[in-house]
Amino acid sequence: MQPLPHFELLRPANLDQALTQLALPGARALGGGTDLLPNLRRGLEQPSPLIDLGDLPGFADIDDGAQGLSLGGGVTLARLAGDAALARSHAAIVQAAQAVAGPSHRTVATLGGNLCQDTRCVFYNQSEWWRAANGYCLKRGGDTCHVAPQGRRCHAAFSGDLAPALMALGAEVELRSLRGARWLPLHLLYRDDGADALCKAPDELLLRVRLPAPPTGLVSAYRKARVRGAMDFPLAGVACALAVDQGRLSHLSIALTGTNSRPLLLEGSADWIGRSVDADLLPEMQAAVGKLVQKQVSPMRSTVTASNHRRLVAAALAQRLLADLVQAAACG
Ligand SMILES: Cc1cc2nc3c(=O)[nH]c(=O)nc-3n(C[C@H](O)[C@H](O)[C@H](O)COP(=O)(O)OP(=O)(O)OC[C@H]3O[C@@H](n4cnc5c(N)ncnc54)[C@H](O)[C@@H]3O)c2cc1C
Ligand code: SF4
């Protein structure tokens, strides 16, 4: 990697200052820097000023009240990964945070940065000389996508671990700018375009994430497959939230990451709600969900692992999660 390029660093003391500074031309939010700074060192972008959010009052707060759970955009992943109360109420979030990068990354990496991280591609997350030698690519500097040379869009994959866990649990995000505040369901923060994956303006700050109070008996979990077990982005990651009430499935939500340019909420999973939890349910549901996953994910050749392998792994992860959670809900 190259040395960091020159940039101005601002450290606002409150939200008003932060929003004013984020509205400056070329400005970019800085959380822990674990996604952004490697990209700067690869010469992928050159924002300035960087707005360090580390001093914002309340930005790293967690509140769990009658209205549900609120997680500040500045909460570190280490805090989420080690939160025992959260592990009981929202296990998928804790498991996803534990699965991000390594312990030193998680100490500084923030929830907001995880949700707003750039998409990834083996032809893009490379040094300047490597990309130059390959004629750059459509996402930056070139006119051809090396993954799909006939196409006109970028297929870099969204590879964040927290988004599917939060989406499966019904999360909404608050975006703030000088124009005001707006809330949107987390899955609407993303679009299926690897070169421009976030549906938010550059000056909008992801202030916090809100989750509804979980329905009675809700269990959730997150699993990912990766090349290096100790520390790696997901080749595929799946989160599932499920509840059983009086012997019937009362909630089912499944979300995926690592396979498309945006994290996906699996369509069709809610069709199982109301079914009686008997010996037939799990095998039927696993077969159907496996098919839904394989149909809805579209992994491309943006990693070193074959696309079809990632498709099959995503389906298998979802099926295993279902087995674990149906059993956990039935025992709970
Ligand atoms: C070796 C390595 C391994 C990694 N492995 C994983 C992994 O397994 N899973 C995974 O999910 N990630 C992984 N990452 C990526 C990164 O570490 C995490 O996604 C991390 O959570 C990013 O958070 P951050 O606070 O450091 O973000 P930053 O780098 O500070 O910011 C990332 C992006 O989000 C924007 N941003 C930050 N905060 C906000 C906000 N509040 N509002 C609006 N925009 C904001 C920034 O402007 C920037 O564009 C890895 C990174 C490295 C270097
Ligand atoms: S998917 Fe194509 S355009 Fe996007 S980063 Fe990879 S090579 Fe570039």
Largest sheet, order of strands side by side? 4-5-8-6-7
Order of helices and strands: EHEHEEEHHHHHHHEEEEEEEHH
Instruction: Give the name of the CATH superfamily.
Output: CO dehydrogenase flavoprotein, C-terminal domain
User: Class by helix and strand content?
Assistant: alpha+beta
What would a concise description of this structure say?
With 332 residues, this protein is an alpha+beta fold. The protein has 11 helices and 12 strands. The longest helix has 25 residues.
List the helices and strands and how they pair.
Elements: E1 9-10, H1 15-22, E2 28-30, H2 36-41, E3 50-52, E4 62-65, E5 68-72, H3 77-81, H4 84-89, H5 91-98, H6 103-108, H7 111-115, H8 128-133, H9 162-168, E6 172-177, E7 180-185, E8 205-211, E9 219-225, E10 236-245, E11 248-257, E12 264-265, H10 281-296, H11 307-331
Parallel strand pairs: 1-3, 2-3
Antiparallel strand pairs: 4-5, 5-8, 6-7, 6-8, 9-10, 10-11, 11-12
Helix pairs in contact: 10-11
Can you tell me about this structure?
With 332 residues, the chain is of the alpha+beta class. It has one domain: Enolase-like, domain 1 (2-Layer Sandwich). It is built from 11 helices and 12 strands. The chain has helices at residues 15-22, 36-41, 77-81, 84-89, 91-98, 103-108, 111-115, 128-133, 162-168, 281-296, 307-331, and strands at residues 9-10, 28-30, 50-52, 62-65, 68-72, 172-177, 180-185, 205-211, 219-225, 236-245, 248-257, 264-265. Strands 4-5-8-6-7 form a 5-stranded antiparallel beta sheet. The N and C termini lie far apart (50 Å). The mean pLDDT is 96. Iron/sulfur cluster is lined by residues 121, 123-124, 137-139, 145-147, 154-156, 194, 302.
